[in-house]
């Protein structure tokens, strides 16, 4: 397991280097001049002399490969620079807003898991039954309703009409209910159908039929032989969505005025605040890779054969 983990961590480094390369190229080729964006945010007249001074200060007058190497060293030390607008270190601003996004992401993810696992499992073992039809209805609704529209519908019914929950913001546990439901519904639709399909395919495997011929109890077969094998494909989808949630659910945070990481990024785009945009892209890549690695470890805990198979492939 240790060798497998080291190989997985080693494979992360080239991906991060590629992400930083693309990030540097994006800034280098962008029609927006970071120096001019800084002067505009600071309300300073952008004369040629001042622009040249700021470009030299930001290292924009250096060759592309020099800028790339400097960016790698700086981001490796989690030095994201200073915001053009607020004048505060970007890392401090991110750490101030990241807990709100983590709270919302984990709440929606837990809700999705608690609903989709039993619903997808029951839909798979009772094909064309009540839970199967229910899962299809949820999958249809979750896939067809945009997040911003669902958010406004929930606000209209539960906050405006019924006055049961707050419209937006953060504070009490009740503030997280509506945005968590808005985020969880598409995930429930995805995870339920993934688990249902996986359960149906697993139940057709020869070892499941053989276990039944041996007289093993159905509950043991379903729990040990079916669910344990059927759940890894769902974990793969979970890892991809966990990274997406942790990097900021931009639309939902905007709809519910949630002071999270994604909303901070949107504001930075409008302000052309390059250090924030650069820090966001790097952290997004880091969180996506980290969540993928976490899911790999969970799958390894469920099925230790993955490590042996990985070693055989290499």
Structure characteristics:
16 helices, 77% helix, MetI-like fold, 314 residues, 0% strand, flat, mainly alpha
Structural overview:
- With 314 residues, the protein is an all-alpha fold.
- It has a domain at 100-259: MetI-like (MetI-like fold).
- The chain has 16 helices and no strands.
- It has helices at 2-10, 12-29, 34-41, 48-58, 64-76, 90-125, 130-144, 147-161, 177-203, 206-213, 218-230, 232-246, 250-255, 261-271, 274-302, 305-313.
- It is flat, with a radius of gyration of 24 Å.
- The protein starts with a helix and ends with a helix.
- The mean pLDDT is 81.
CATH architecture descriptor of the domain at 100-259: Orthogonal Bundle
User: Which sheet architecture does the biggest sheet show?
Assistant: none
State the distance separating the first and last CA atoms.
Answer: 14 Å
The CATH class of the domain at 100-259 turns out to be Mainly Alpha
Calculate Rg over CA atoms. 24 Å
Low-confidence runs (pLDDT<50, min 5 residues)?
none
**Tally of separate helices:** 16
Q: From the helix content, strand content and strand pairing, which structural class follows?
A: mainly alpha
Strand content: under 5%
- Please state the average pLDDT score: 81
CATH topology of the domain at 100-259: MetI-like fold
- Describe the global form: flat
Order of helices and strands: HHHHHHHHHHHHHHHH
Name given to the CATH homologous superfamily of the domain at 100-259: MetI-like
Indicate the percent of residues in helices. Answer: over 70%
How many beta strands in the DSSP annotation?
0
């Amino acid at each position: 397991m240790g060798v497998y983990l080291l190989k997985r961590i080693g494979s992360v480094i080239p991906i991060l280097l590629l992400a930083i390369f693309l990030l540097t190229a994006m800034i280098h080729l962008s029609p927006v001049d970071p120096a001019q964006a800084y002067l505009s945010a600071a309300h300073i007249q952008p004369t040629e002399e001042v622009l040249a001074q700021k470009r030299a200060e930001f290292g924009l007058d250096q060759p592309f490969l020099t800028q790339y190497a400097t960016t790698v060293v700086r981001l490796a030390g989690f030095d994201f620079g200073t915001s053009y607008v607020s004048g505060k270190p970007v890392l401090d601003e991110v750490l101030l807003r990241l807990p709100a996004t983590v709270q919302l992401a984990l709440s929606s993810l837990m809700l999705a898991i608690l609903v989709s696992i039993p619903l997808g499992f029951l839909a798979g073992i009772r094909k064309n039954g009540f839970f199967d039809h229910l899962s299809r209805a949820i999958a249809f609704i979750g896939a067809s309703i945009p997040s911003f529209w669902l958010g406004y519908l929930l606000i209209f019914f539960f906050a405006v009409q019924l006055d049961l929950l707050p419209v937006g913001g953060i504070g009490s546990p009740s503030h997280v209910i509506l945005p968590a439901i808005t985020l969880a519904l598409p995930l429930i639709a995805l995870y339920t159908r993934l688990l249902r399909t996986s359960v149906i395919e697993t139940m057709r495997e020869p070892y499941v039929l053989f276990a039944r011929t041996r007289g093993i109890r159905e509950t043991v077969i379903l729990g040990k032989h079916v669910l344990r094998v059927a759940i890894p494909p769902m974990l793969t989808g979970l890892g991809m969505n966990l990274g997406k949630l942790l990097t900021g659910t931009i639309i939902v945070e905007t709809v519910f005025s949630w002071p999270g990481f994604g909303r901070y990024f949107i504001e930075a785009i409008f302000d052309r605040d390059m250090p924030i945009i650069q820090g966001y892209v790097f952290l997004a890549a880091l969180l996506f890779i980290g969540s993928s690695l976490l899911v790999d470890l969970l799958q390894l805990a469920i099925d230790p054969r993955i490590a042996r198979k990985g070693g055989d492939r290499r």
